[in-house]
Write a structure and sequence with these properties.
Number of strands: 11
Oligomer: single chain
Largest sheet: 7 strands, mixed
Number of helices: 0
Distance between the termini: 40 Å
Radius of gyration: 13 Å
Structural class: mainly beta
Amino acid sequence: QVQLVESGGGLVQAGGSLRLSCVASGRTFSSYAMGWFRQAPGKERDFVASINWSAYTTYYVDSVKGRFTISRDNAKNTVYLQMNSLKPEDTAIYYCATNRREYASGRYVSPDEYNYWGQGTQVTVSS
C-alpha cells in the first residue's frame, strides 16, 4: 500500500511563497512520475504540475508557469512544489499523487492517470 503525506500548506498574503512537500512510502518512489493537483471549493480537482520519474521533464498548467516549480528528491522519497508570487486564485486544497505507470514520462494531466493520493494540504492566499 502506497502512502503519500503532504505538508507545507498555510495562510499567506498575495505575493508570498509556500513550499509544499509530499513524502511517499510503500513503493519504489523513484520509478513513478508524480503530480500535484488542486481543488477549490465547489470545483473539480485540477492538474497543477507533474514531474517524470527521473526529474528530466516537468509540466505545468499555464496559470502557474513561471511561479511554481516542481522537483523531487528520490533519495528522500519526496516531491516538492515551490510556489512563488501566490495569488488569491491559487487558494485550494493541494494534493500530490503517483502515476499509474512505472517509468512514465508523458504529460499526464487527468486525475484518472494517478492511482494513489495524499490527504491534501490547504493553501489559502489572502488579498
